Amino acid sequence: MKKDLELQRDVSAELARDPFVRDENVGIAVHEGVVTLTGTVDDYAQRRVAETVVARVPGVRAVVQDISVHLPIEADLPDPEIARRSVEALERSRAVPHEDIQLLVENGWVTLEGMVGCAIERRAAELAIAPVAGIHGIRNLLGLRPHPTAHELELRIKEGLARFPSVSVSRQH
Fold it and tell me: Could you report how far apart the first and last alpha carbons of the chain are, in Å?
């Protein structure tokens, strides 16, 4: 396992290489492989990128995200505008079942609620709205729909095939 000081240097170097993060505003503390990020950034997307960059550094065991978003005055949008832009971003994403997602926006924080089919859709919803101007943070409370059992799938298939009487079905084991 890397020593904390060595890991801190590696994390700092990785953040400095990423052109999207203004690393001079990000503080890094390391204790037993747990990296704590502090400071401020200009938008939520930078906050997420910093977290992602740090998590991929070899030796990082966990990331504590304590970076604040302080938007420039011109980017500080009212909640209704953030909500409108977030809904549009979800609708544009092909990976997101946007009709199953509800948004709550309060003081620049967007909460995603509803049910999606898989973890990829859950993550895609967050990534779709992350670049929206004015967002201070995202709470992803999307749940995952339970997968159907083998018996339920068999019934659905039989029901579907019953709608096409010309199709012959034989069961093989």
Answer: 51
